[in-house]
Amino acid sequence: MTSHPDTSAPPARTLIESRSIDWVPEGERTGKLWHQGPLWFLGNFQYFSIPIGFIGPSLGLSLGWSVVAGVLGIAIGTLFMAFHASQGPAMGLPQMIQSRAQFGYRGVIVPLVGTLFTYLAFNVADTILLSEGLHSSFGLDPKLVAAVAALGAAVLAIFGHDWLHTAFRALLYVSLPVMTILTIGVLVGGAGGTPPAPGAYGFSWIAFMAQLGAAAAYNITYAPYVSDYSRYLPVATAPRKVIAAVFFGASTSAIWLIALGAWLAISLGAQDGLAGLQLAGNTVIPYLGDAAALLSAVALWATMGMNAYGGTLTVLTMVDSFKPITPGRRARIVTVVALTVVWYAVSSVVEAGSVATVLSSLTLMLYVLVPWTATNLVDYFLVRRGRYALGDLFRPDGVYGTWSWRGITACAVGFVAQIPFMVLTDINGWSYSGVVATALGNADIAWLVGLAVTGVVYFALARSLDVDAEIAAGDSVPHQ
Question: In this structure, is the dihedral angle defined by the CA atoms of residues 215, 246, 117 and 402, taken in order, positive or negative?
């Protein structure tokens, strides 16, 4: 792995994080490994996870098969996410800065565009879900909810890395006991509900793959910024420990709430995750559901702050790739505010019924992100094996070039290979089903095809790289 000489003493701790897209020297690596688990556990321990479990039942999939598909999907998606997380301690860089090694100093704009749209689309959907859910559950003004959620998420993103970790841990300590009691109530039959009619649910390959794909997509979308939250860990942190902490943190909570969502859909006939959670909890113990719904909504707000932080680093990387900037506190604050205005404005004009369109757009972003994640992981683990000239990632004339044809070609080929397998159900009234997907009964395996094709193509193209020459010719440490 790349070595990182400690070139600076630890700075005095400030309220607002001073770093943005720059390298974090070893002297500032004050992160704790045990913080990773709670962060990613709560990242999925919120309102958005529950409706993921509605997908299988809505297509006639039984509770048991919905849970199996959810478990497999989350396991696959989280595995990719967790391997990206191991890059943070090794390199001390935001995820998308490291991607310049595969795509070039300016070529990284290709995956950055898709990544930025994903952040914004998530926060638009989150804002709408919060507004509608808290209005139906507690009668709160949807416009006020949207404004407060946007402002709170922006403030959390501005304070930065350490505050995000702290907020997520605090919310976890409060919400975990509440959700545990509610879940026990469901398991022992104290949450109400009725058994489904005979024959109402069963197994369907199409429904199974839809549930599996949605679950996998859920955590793969974390991949572009998971190492943003591990880059403050000491360089000596064992990669396997980072991978394990992120994997079990992010997968456990997602599996838990997806399974709960499937039960709410089948046994309670819930159409809204927050309302279903509230009804089930209040049946177990009066006001338990109110507490669970409120805490789940607050956790979703915190996740919006995480998205805003990651989106900010993405924007700054995009700008820096064409016009070098001085990364730091001011640049991050200005960008957070700008992104907040954009997602709030979009969410205020999107109709409630259009949430399905937003979620379908996220499926499209999965198709965009899958070729990037395959390229990045193959490069890091199989081609360069963690060996990078870090200083050259900040130079357009460095050893990685301005536009790297290998990464761009692999992503293009991988994306095109997915098209015959794609299934898009609703994007502003438009839908698409590829010729192969149609033959398979609209079972969506496009993302699996994209992973395989992109990985193989990139590995084949990268065989001509001389990694030793890159390291010898490049700068091992970025200039501060």
Answer: negative
Nearest CA-CA partner of 222 in 85, 66, 104: 85
pLDDT along the chain (480 residues), means of 10: 43 56 77 86 85 89 96 94 92 85 92 86 85 84 91 88 79 90 93 86 90 88 82 90 95 95 92 87 94 90 87 86 79 91 87 54 78 95 92 89 95 96 76 89 88 97 93 74
277 contacts 289 by C-beta, under 8 angstroms: yes
Whether residue 165 contacts residue 35, with contact meaning beta carbons closer than 8 Å, is answered with: yes
DSSP 442: S
Q: Where do the H-state alpha helices sit in 323-398?
A: 329-349, 355-378
The SS3 call for residue 423 is strand
Helix/strand/coil for 137: helix
What is the distance between the alpha carbons of residues 258 and 50, in angstroms, rounded to a whole number?
5
Classify the C-alpha dihedral 398-402-404-408 as positive or negative. positive
Closest CA to 360 of 433, 306, 415, 305: 433
Contacts of 38 (CB under 8 A, 6+ apart): 165, 168, 169, 172, 249
Distance, in Å, from the CA atom of 61 to the CA atom of 37, rounded to the nearest integer, reads 31
- CATH classification code of 33-356: 1.10.4160.10
